[in-house]
Structures are given as structure tokens and as C-alpha cells.
Design a protein that fits this description.
The chain contains 21 helices and 5 strands. It has 500 residues and is α/β, with parallel strands linked by helices. The longest helix has 53 residues, at 307-359.
């Protein structure tokens, strides 16, 4: 009997992708022990003065959805992670539709599976962060724009594209570029009245409370980044180097290499899909790429918006290889070679993601465990800390910021210090012990290996391109709590400050 190749159905492929997304997210929803500062700021977005901390840009889209968790009586963190997981898995849908216009069902399935197993969307689907929501909105808008590009009279496609673009604008500042693409496409399709209405839509964002303050911090972040740049040329070259080399590590070497081959094929494509990628997708991603290099900071998650494009280009190259192998080796030979190559890519991604889950699970875990202990202190206890946002959130109580220059401690006060925020913690503790009688109350530690950029012991490396050189070096952190038994035992300080 002669073996014949039978392609899988789209329904089966989509069902397998949905199952893969759910199985890799839902059981791990509470895997990470703590949230990032951005995540906690999303959870506390509607509390007063949430935006007073500079350099953090949280737009209202994701925090607004977090408030819906109150309706179903879910904790903010659980609901926030469910939302992140939903959008992380849902991004595979617009990616599938865009890739299916270019390749076969099997190749599209492999591209979407590579996306779901990649460590970046996997990890950030398990944290309270707006990244996966923006990722979904970005590619959902592009997918609808592509449909409108192919069918200018399809009002439904361009309408949904505009909806996703506006939602992206309310989620991340980069959404403004999607709105500009929507305006240009509306003009191209002869809908100039729609384009005029959409062009003024960013004004709606400014009408929201606190948005002016947010945008002030957006420009402040870029301005501070510019001030820190002593040599702009060297900075741009360094930024270009880190953003072009790190996908080899973060996306996997083989996927990146194959995606590079896919670029040449999409540039040479003469159909409507090729033109859309050349005139819309690639220029938009190029603009976002260079904008990432203006501030002096770098995190691997900044590469997340470009990952679906890498998976699509990987699929194009894999499809080309399939046709070459099919002509040379027939159905069975081509199938073995494609499956072997795909297994290598998917295995690398899965092993990498599992390693990240294991060694980066406890980021900020020591701070959270220490903060939760504060719940058991008397309600009138005064607590000073060098970190307010997360410690106050997890402790459920107001804190006073610790400034070494202020000397207003009283007996019975509590001090909480974290090595990430107080690098010279040993020196500070020695100084405090010289002037106060302190009693250790609690000490918590955490351990992180930054396979994907994470917390760094050295503040000079935090969110900086040089941090990628320390991916395999363990970072150890500690949060310590003290109770002031007696304040100002040093007469020099007692005489200076007087009795409190």
C-alpha cells in the first residue's frame, strides 16, 4: 500500500492551538509569587496619586478591564493574570489568519505553536501586565487592516481595524501609530470622513483624568534617556546591537535564522499580501523598533510586539523549504524534514520557557513575603520602607518612605529594607545600629537567574543593555525588617534631634 500525505483540517489545527494555549497557561496562573512594579500600578490605577512615580507609563485600557474583576469577585491579581493569559493565547488568532494568507494549514499551525511556546508571551501571560493585551490589539488591528487592504469595500473589516487601533491607543502610547495607519487606510479606501473622525480620536485620550500627567512622564522618560546619553552615536549603535542580536537568544537561534530568510521572500512577493507587509507591517514595526532605542533602557519584553512577525516570517521560509523538499524527496521525505526542523524549534522554545519559569519564579518574592507579614502588626504601628508601591499594596496598609536624611524615628517603629532598592544595605544597617537599638524581626530572600532580563543586584545594570551579559549569573535579594527598640541611643543624635 502506498502512503499518501493528508493535510490536517483547520478546525483540528485551531483546536490543538487552543488546547496548547490553555494547558500552558491556566495550570500556572499562580506560578509567579509576586508582580512587577508596573503590574501593581495597574492594580492600583484608580487609587489616588497612583501616577506620581515618574517613568512609568500605564494607560487606562488594561486597568479598566481589571476593575471588571470586582464584578465576578476575583482578586485583582488572579483576574489580571487571567486577562493577560487570555490575550496572550488570543493573539494566536490574528496571527493564524495573517499567516494562513501566506502558507498552508500545517505551516500556519507550526508558526502559531512556536508563538504560544515562546518564553516571552508565555511568561508575560502569567503576570499582571498590559503587554499581552497590547500585543493582541496590535496584531488584531493589522489583521483587519490586511483584510481591508485586500477588499477596500469591506466596511466591516476596516471598522474592526479602527476599533482595535483605538483600543490599542488606550492601552499603550505606541497605539498612536496604529491610529495613523487606520487613517491612511481609510483615505486609501475612499472613506475620508471616517479618516477625519479617527484623526481626532487621540484627543479623547487626553480628556481622561490623569492622562496629561501620564504623557508628561512619557516625554520625561525620553528626555531623561536623552540626558543620560553622553555619546548619542555610541548609544544608538549599542541599542541597535542589543535589539538586533538578542532575538537570536530570546526567539531561539533557529527561528530567528529562518525568519531572516522569510524576510527576503516577503520582500519579493508580488501579490497583495506581500505589498501589505512591505508597505504597512514592516514599516510600522521598523518605527516601533527604532523608538525602543531612544531611551537608555532595555528589557527582553520590549521584543514581544515583533515576535508574531518573526513567527510569520519563519512560516514563510518553512513553506518554501517544504516545496523544495517535496520536489526532491516526495511527500514522506519532505514531511520528515519539516517535522524534524519544527521539532527542533519548538523543543528549544519549550525547554527555554520552562527554564525561565523555574529560575525566575520568585522575582520580588522576598519583598512580598515580608510585606504580607506587616498585616499582622498593630494598626497604629508606623512602618518605614525604601519601597512604597508594592510593599504598601501587599501589606494592605499605608507606609512612610524611608529617607536616610530624615531622623524622626521613634521607639516601636518598624523599618523594612530591600537589597534591590538599598544596594548599600550593610552600610545602612551599621549606621542605624550605631544610633538606634534595633531588633531584627524578619528576613526573607529570593533567588533569580535572569535568563530573560529581570532584577539585577547592581543598579547600574537594571533595565540596561549591559544586563544581557549576565543572563547566567544568579541574582540574590533580601528583604529585612527591624523594630526600633530605642531611638537615638547615640547622645550626639539625641542632642541634635531632641526627644520625640
Amino acid at each position: 500500500m502506498v502512503w499518501t500525505y493528508k493535510p490536517i483540517s483547520e478546525r483540528l489545527a485551531l483546536g490543538c492551538l487552543l488546547g496548547l494555549g490553555i494547558l500552558t497557561r491556566l495550570p500556572l496562573l499562580h506560578w509567579f509569587t509576586a508582580e512587577t512594579t508596573d503590574g501593581v500600578m495597574c492594580l492600583t490605577y484608580f487609587q489616588q496619586h497612583w501616577y506620581e512615580v515618574p517613568r512609568f507609563v500605564i494607560f487606562p485600557g488594561y486597568p479598566s478591564l481589571l476593575r471588571l474583576g470586582e464584578v465576578v469577585h476575583l482578586s485583582g491579581e488572579t483576574w489580571g493574570r487571567l486577562l493577560a493569559a487570555f490575550f496572550g493565547v488570543a493573539t494566536a488568532w490574528p496571527l493564524w489568519r495573517m499567516v494562513r494568507r501566506l502558507v498552508s494549514v500545517e505551516t500556519a499551525f507550526l508558526a502559531c505553536a512556536a508563538f504560544l511556546l515562546s518564553p516571552l508571551p508565555w511568561i508575560w501571560s502569567l503576570r499582571v501586565m498590559p503587554d499581552t493585551m497590547f500585543l493582541f490589539l496590535l496584531w488584531a488591528a493589522l489583521e483587519r487592516f490586511q483584510a481591508a487592504w485586500d477588499a477596500p469595500r469591506d466596511g466591516k473589516a476596516i471598522t474592526w481595524g479602527c476599533v482595535w487601533a483605538l483600543a490599542a491607543l488606550f492601552t499603550r502610547p505606541e497605539g498612536i501609530f496604529l491610529v495613523l495607519v487606520a487613517v491612511a487606510l481609510l483615505v486609501r479606501n475612499g472613506r475620508r470622513s471616517w479618516a477625519a473622525a479617527l484623526a481626532v480620536s487621540p484627543v479623547l485620550l487626553w480628556a481622561l483624568p490623569g492622562t496629561g500627567e501620564i504623557m508628561h512622564h512619557v516625554f520625561q522618560a525620553f528626555r531623561e534617556g536623552g540626558v543620560e546619553i553622553e555619546d548619542p552615536v555610541s548609544h544608538l549603535l549599542g541599542g541597535f546591537w542589543v535589539y538586533t542580536t538578542q532575538p537570536v537568544w530570546v526567539y531561539s537561534p533557529l527561528l530567528t535564522f529562518l525568519a531572516g530568510g522569510g524576510v527576503f521572500h516577503i520582500l519579493a512577493a508580488g501579490d497583495g499580501n506581500g505589498k501589505f507587509w512591505r508597505r504597512v507591517v514592516l514599516p510600522l514595526l521598523t518605527i516601533l523598533f527604532f523608538l525602543k532605542m531612544i531611551p537608555t533602557n532595555y528589557q527582553d519584553r520590549h521584543l514581544l510586539p515583533f515576535l508574531p512577525a518573526a513567527c510569520a516570517l519563519f512560516a514563510i521560509q518553512l513553506e518554501k523549504l517544504w516545496h523544495v523538499w517535496h520536489e526532491r524527496y516526495g511527500d514522506l521525505g519532505a514531511l520528515w524534514r519539516r517535522n524534524l526542523l519544527s521539532t527542533a524549534v519548538l523543543s528549544y522554545l519549550m525547554v527555554f520557557a520552562i527554564a525561565v519559569l523555574v529560575v525566575q519564579r520568585d522575582s520580588f518574592g522576598d519583598l512580598r513575603r515580608n510585606a504580607e507579614f506587616l498585616r499582622f502588626l498593630p494598626a497604629d504601628a508606623r512602618v518605614f520602607s525604601d519601597e512604597i508601591i508594592k510593599t504598601s499594596f501587599w501589606s494592605g496598609r499605608p507606609l512612610e518612605f524611608w529617607d536616610p536624611s530624615q531622623q524622626n524615628l521613634r521607639s516601636g517603629d518598624f523599618l523594612v529594607f530591600h537589597t534591590f532598592y538599598t544596594p548599600r544595605l550593610s552600610w545602612l544597617e551599621n549606621t542605624l545600629h550605631e544610633n538606634h537599638q534595633l531588633e531584627p524581626v524578619r528576613s526573607d530572600g529570593s533567588y533569580v537567574v535572569p535568563l530573560l532580563t529581570d532584577l539585577m543586584e547592581d543598579p547600574a545594570l537594571q533595565n540596561r543593555p549591559r544586563a544581557v551579559s549576565y543572563r547566567f549569573e544568579p541574582q540574590i535579594f533580601n528583604t529585612r525588617m527591624y523594630r526600633v527598640v530605642k531611638a537615638y541611643i547615640n547622645p550626639r543624635f539625641a542632642g541634635k534631634m531632641g526627644k520625640k
